[in-house]
Amino acid sequence: MAGPPIHDLHFAQEPSVDRVPGPKSDRLREKQNEIDSNAVAYPNNIPLAFDEGKGATLKDVDGNVFLDFFAGIGVYNVGHANPYVNEAVHEQVDKLTHSVDFPTEPRLELIEKLEELAPGNLSGNSRVVFGGPTGSDAIEASIKLAKYNTGGRGLVAFRNSYHGATSGAMSITSNSKLKKHYAPLLPDVVHAPFPHPFQEGRDPEESVERALEEVRATIEQPYGGLANPAGIFVEPIQGEGGVVVPPEGFLQGLRDIADENDLPLVFDEIQAGFGRTGEWWAAEHYDVTPDAMTTAKALGGNGLPLSATIYHEDLDTWGPGDHAGTYRGHVPAMVGGVRAIEYIQSHDLLDHATEVGDYIRERLREAGEGDSGLGDVRGKGLFIGAEFVDSEGNPDDDRVEAIQQYCYEHGVLVWTAGQYDNVLRLLPPLVLTQRQAEVGTEIIADAIAATAEDERARA
């Protein structure tokens, strides 16, 4: 077996919190406020300074131990400081860290593993291009790939989407607040509806039909509004948008439209992929294969930055230098990716993520019975969203903020998502044990009950 069992990876199976924030965290945050950028965001919501991580647990500088249900936005799929990953990365750091795109054994091994794991007919027929280290860089590469192969420039993306913070990635991201200070971005981008039955108040079939009609009209109608389309870009499960799981038929419908119009279909698997949903790629839940897909976040194994675009070999038409990036040869991260894949396979973490994720969602549904404000629980594997609404059915971001605060004070780190910040988003490492899932979810359930009681007291 590759590395230790998951039960041996953590500080503890339960959180241990004295008081938060502690004095050392306060001092470091005060110093950060004095010298760091105003763009710093996360400590504004969770006032902590971290010291060490192990498995699905984090320790702050004051010695408090937390269950990590966020994993660095889905980065630590095999847990913090996984020794099977780290020992190989440490060894590689002493040998070679940067190779541009010269061949190295880790680079070629990772490419071969990604081709083996690729969904559908991408497996055995794919190419991999590394560029910059972030998910945004992989999106930029996929946009360039689509334009290079089609000669088009128009891009179809989706409302409620997030693809990154560089110019091209922001262009296909739908968050207008994120983009408004940086316009103009790429021209000729149209955002079609992404089916969200709960928010729309529609049945799933109607929601899918409406979304696909918009995509087809945009691409095919003479007055559809998009000249010279180059490709369709979609998250198979939306992440920042609130862990929105599309109903059956949507991704297949996009596949059909792309095929009929000779356009590449690109899946953004940066947050949903690499085992997060209980399959290697979220696309596999729908048995739909994209022409290209992006991956990053957990790809580097132990938090090292690395991104890649995996695409069908028929699209490999560009020449030397047509896509580049200094850090496309980050060898330790490539070693980390290889070891992470081996650890996931050796410990059956895809099945484990499915089982533990099913437990968490079911327990959250139980906790949401009655007047808790919990409107919908969704997701796949350990990619989980719980959407909260008020008594009139409107998004309740205050409730989610209060739940996050309660969880933090009781030793569980969770985050928010959704265009109205009213979705509790859970992205725990795939090495989360059943016991940790039970303990952490009970704390979340207690938070739901406590905030519901506070709401009744105010009414």
From TrEMBL:
Which Pfam families does this one have? Answer: Aminotran_3
Among the GO molecular function terms of this UniProt record, one is: transaminase activity
Question: What does this protein need as cofactor?
Answer: pyridoxal 5'-phosphate
Q: Does the keyword NAD apply?
A: no
Q: Which UniProt keywords apply?
A: Aminotransferase, Pyridoxal phosphate, Transferase
What the entry lists under CDD domains is as follows: OAT_like (cd00610)
Q: Which family does it belong to?
A: Belongs to the class-III pyridoxal-phosphate-dependent aminotransferase family.
Q: What is this protein called?
A: Aspartate aminotransferase family protein
This protein's species is Halospeciosus flavus
